[in-house]
Amino acid sequence: MYDVELNHITKTYENGAVQAVKDVSFGVKKGELFGLIGPDGAGKTSIFRMLTTLLIPDSGTASVNGFDVVEDFREIRKRVGYMPGKFSLYQDLTVEENLEFFATVFNTSIEENYDLIKDIYVQIEPFKKRRAGKLSGGMKQKLALSCALIHRPTVLFLDEPTTGVDAVSRKEFWEMLRRLKEQGITILVSTPYMDEAALCERIALIQNGSILSINTPQEIINSYPKPLYAIKAHKMSALLHALRDSNLVDSAFSFGEWHHITLQDSVTAEQLKVSLQAEFPTVQMEAIEPGIEDCFIQQSLAQHEVEL
Amino acid sequence: MAIVRIAPAVNGYFAAGILPAKEVAMSNYVIEAENLTKRFGDFTAVNEISFHVEKGEIFGFLGANGAGKTTAMRMLCGLSIPSSGKATIAGFDVYKQTESIKQNIGYMSQKFSLYEDLTVLENITFFGGIYGLSRKEIAVKADQLLHELGLFDHENTLVGSLPLGWKQKLAFSVAIFHEPSIVFLDEPTGGVDPVTRRQFWDLIYKASDAGITVFVTTHYMDEAEYCNRISMMVDGEIKALDTPENLKKQFNARSMDDVFFELARGAKRSGD
Q1: pLDDT, tens only, A184-221
Q2: Smallest Cα–Cα separation from A7: which of A60, A44, A51?
Q3: What is the C-alpha to C-alpha distance for residues B58 and B119, in angstroms, rounded to an integer?
Q4: A243: Cβ–Cβ under 8 A, 6 or more apart, which residues?
Q5: Residue B171: which CATH number?
Q6: In terms of pTM, does the model score above 0.90?
Q7: Residue ranges of domains in chain A, CATH in brackets
Q8: Considering only CB atoms, which chain A residues are within 8 Å of B65?
Q9: In this complex, which of A139, A167, A236 lies closest to B264 when CB atoms are compared?
Q10: Does any CB of chain B come closer than 8 Å to the CB of residue A194?
């Protein structure tokens, strides 16, 4: 039994001209930390809005806590917490006033559920008289999470909670999510940061409104179809061109300090190295385990080929 | 006394600027900063930072929210006069030659770069005109650019209706349309898919190969690894500056993310 379930959900805009979500199905188990991983325009926000009953699907069905997102929207609204991608608290109210407002709207009080938000709220409590609009990015994010939790939701929807936040705050935020998960809250989180995928129990890779794959991060990595190599030399830009022109190479993408490549079938790493030695005497090459980003690239290109 | 100087040429185009005769014999550095400082009242936003950036280098300028990156970048772009210290950008002084600086740099940020209500071609023409290119130059180069980006069928499309990845590539191309010595990229590639992000970096590599210095800030630590060298700002100061490889060695870290965490977790300031 899934706590959040989508069956063949489709959503279009502008009279069908824009297909935001195309026949998407997946389920999130109770107490699971599930990640929707994909770039802007993948359909993540549309999915969140349908699950939080703010948008009606064109077709397909979806449920949260067993309630239908169209028929039982009132029940769902009582039960879920939603942190939208865009900061949506009242900028002119103070930290404390915002929290009190959301508690009151849900017929509860800060005191009643303080234990749930304590770890997060104590970090912003010294600024409780400050207006929300005057908070830093990291503090806004903590306040928004506190407000989304104050009525003790059963399911938490977090739409790109870490976008635009620096690496330290991102790390802290994921630690908070792990602690919330221990309280039994089901968490659906979206992110464009591929490295955050590893912190979820299961993930769905999504692009252009379609799911590329759903699995645990490790299983997605294990299913990468070919040996992957990292390669570098002194002239990285020239090396990338040489790799793309080489008929020994299947794919070549820049990955920061290294390029990641796969080889044509039956070509060995040694063969490629020898072929590059003359132009790039400092070339280094090693076999590596793929990351989620490698998998995303591979799967999105494979899907692209199917569509062509 | 001032003479007309020919700025570094890229692809055969020249940008003319004015600078004092004594500085004509310039070094290979396109950005030179020495003890550059900016104070706002009692608050020292940028505290005596010193660094050099070479011609054609891809230089990563990183730091936590509130570390002072934006303030530093505004000084380097000639938009904010320093409180003390020295800096030259493409040979121009950040106190006295801010207008020459502006003519010799390009700027792109994710927040604002192009006019959404103008078409692709109108944006190119507008920015080309702002940077003083002639109509003829603009026409020739616009043609070339549209071909390179595969946007030829979309020259009359409103920029607002383009996919984000196309917008970013166009914004970058427009920022270097006048062939500046330096292009400043302020959080350029957030939100796009991994393949599009790499196409964007292909453009950056190409600009760097053509001798344009690329000065980039980003929150993506994996992206920082594309840079030739990286500086890390914490609480207004540069706490580390080296190649990604050396920084990882120095901090015994597996990724730049770990290096950043090591340096920034001690930060006292936080903000946007």
Answers
A1: 999 999 998 888 999 999 999 999 999 999 999 999 99
A2: A60
A3: 30
A4: A231, A249, A252, A259, A261
A5: 3.40.50.300
A6: no
A7: 2-216 (3.40.50.300), 225-289 (3.30.70.2070)
A8: 136-138, 165-166, 169
A9: A167
A10: yes
